[in-house]
Design goal:
alpha/beta, 18 helices, 2 domains, six-stranded parallel beta sheet, 17 strands, Rossmann fold
Length: about 475
């Protein structure tokens, strides 16, 4: 569907639509595509991220007010690097870290200020560095937009009728104008507060994760007003099947809300990305967290001892596809008695764990594991086989020459390039009956983990990253 979508937005010149100087289409483009794709694939909203229950709004409101006041009264503090961290953190020893920005911060030569959006209306604590929490930008504009969007009557919005017509032809009913109205209100308020912050801290570079997220785009638009450069750190696959990194070549220079630079993990991504960023501005920086953790990780003897004479299979779940994956696992153990499955839910699926446990209650060879049970990279090293759909874990496992099986359900397309790579031991399967056939194939991996095109060694020699 991506090619049709790109054609539609080009024919209707959607990137040219602005309201009070704010480009509307880039702000809603990814969400519209992902939501309609989820409907097409009959997935629930979990497929595009977990939602917060309304009652949690009231639980968190006191803390949100406190953080909002802190933001308003933040003192002037000039910094070299302003960092917009990923909201979902991972506990390592005593702290919750952002695996994308925190490993990089210690290599930067200059002062830093780290700021963070909310994750499900709260934040992870404690963190290794002081964090400026963006509740005032993340929460209040959302509430205001939900209240007042119906009062907006803007003629420009009629130009989005083509989007609804496009999806209607594919059998999907979607009302884009409500989403655009809400986004405009959120953007207007958020950009105002980001400009206020930038006047106080005056960074020479902004570093962010998920450059297509709404907060990153608001920040990029505010930064462009003061001619401050912005750099995105790669956080997942950025291939041709990711709509947020796929644009018509003729329209790339029309996308004003994306970062100026993109730091990718390896040469493959620089060569194959189709983002609205100049090729010379795509920097191969590497992924320091991956190398640090993988080199330290050791096989888990406890799992080994519990799985004697069995193949250890780790299944990496995805939001929106967890139940389908779990049903596949149950089918798998019914026809393969020589495997032990360790099923790892995605962090956004933790609310589903109880229902998953009920599903596997009567099985002996499926074990549910979380980060509290075993460190992810130890689990990868312990496993004989890694199975999933399109998690980054599959890429990480493939690079260290593990046998990786990609289940052919919606989303698998993201990793077609891994299946095609002759240096990797990666296979596409559709039925549980194919499992035995594939695992008996001798490992064909000839990839050199230390010299691969997906994860380069850390390189911070770029002038942009120097103070």
């Amino acid at each position: 569907m991506i090619s049709d979508f790109l054609k539609m937005e080009k024919e209707n010149n959607l990137f040219s639509i602005k309201l009070m100087g704010i480009p509307l289409w880039p702000l809603v483009r990814s969400r519209i595509y992902e939501r309609t794709l989820a409907k097409l694939n009959h997935k629930d909203d979990a497929s595009i991220g977990s939602k917060t229950k309304a009652k949690d709004n009231f639980k968190s409101i006191f803390q949100i007010v406190i953080e909002s006041v802190k933001f308003l009264f933040k003192k002037k503090q000039s910094v070299d690097f302003l960092i917009l961290a990923h909201p979902r953190r991972k506990k390592i020893n005593d702290y919750y870290i952002d695996i994308y920005t925190d490993p990089l911060v210690k290599y930067l030569d200059g002062s830093t200020l780290i700021m963070e959006p909310m994750h499900k209306l709260s934040h992870y604590n404690p963190t290794p560095s002081e964090v400026l929490k963006l509740d005032i930008i993340d929460y209040w504009p959302r509430i205001i937009s939900n209240i007042f969007y119906k009062l907006l009557f803007i003629k420009e919005l009629e130009k989005f009728n083509c989007v609804d017509s496009f999806f209607m032809k594919k059998g999907i009913e979607f009302q884009s104008k409500s989403l655009v109205k809400k986004e405009f209100i959120r953007a207007l308020i958020s950009i105002y507060f980001f400009k206020k912050l930038l006047r106080k801290v005056k960074p020479h570079l902004i570093i962010e994760v998920v450059g297509y997220s709404r907060l990153s785009q608001y920040l990029n638009l505010a930064a462009s007003h003061y001619k401050i450069e912005t750099l995105e750190l790669q956080h997942s696959d950025v291939g041709e099947n990711h709509i947020s990194y796929n644009f018509n070549k003729e329209q790339k220079n029309m996308v004003e809300s994306y970062p100026d630079y993109l730091a990718v993990w390896g040469k493959y991504f620089k060569k194959n990305i189709n983002a609205p960023i100049e090729q010379e501005n795509i920097l191969v920086v590497g992924f320091p967290y991956f190398w640090e953790k993988m080199e330290k990780a050791k096989s888990d003897l406890n799992i080994k001892n519990k799985s004697v004479n069995k193949e250890i299979v780790t299944v990496i779940s995805q939001p929106g596809s967890g139940k389908e994956l779990l049903n596949f696992c149950i089918k798998l153990i019914s026809i393969c008695d020589n495997i032990k499955i360790y099923f790892k839910p995605h962090p956004n699926e933790l609310s589903e764990i109880k229902s998953y446990q009920k599903v596997i209650a009567n099985t002996d060879n499926i074990v549910l594991v979380t980060d509290d049970d075993i460190e992810l990279y130890s689990l990868i090293k312990t496993s004989d086989i890694i199975l999933g759909i399109h998690s980054t874990v599959l890429l990480e496992a493939a690079v260290i020459n593990k046998k990786v099986l990609i289940l052919k359900i919606p989303g698998w397309e993201h990793y077609q390039y891994l299946i095609k790579d002759p240096k990797l031991d990666v296979y596409l399967i559709e039925q549980a009956e194919e499992f035995n056939e594939v695992i008996n194939i001798e490992n064909k991996a000839t990839n050199s983990p230390k010299n691969n095109s997906y994860f380069s060694q850390l390189d911070l020699s770029f002038e942009l990253l120097k103070n």
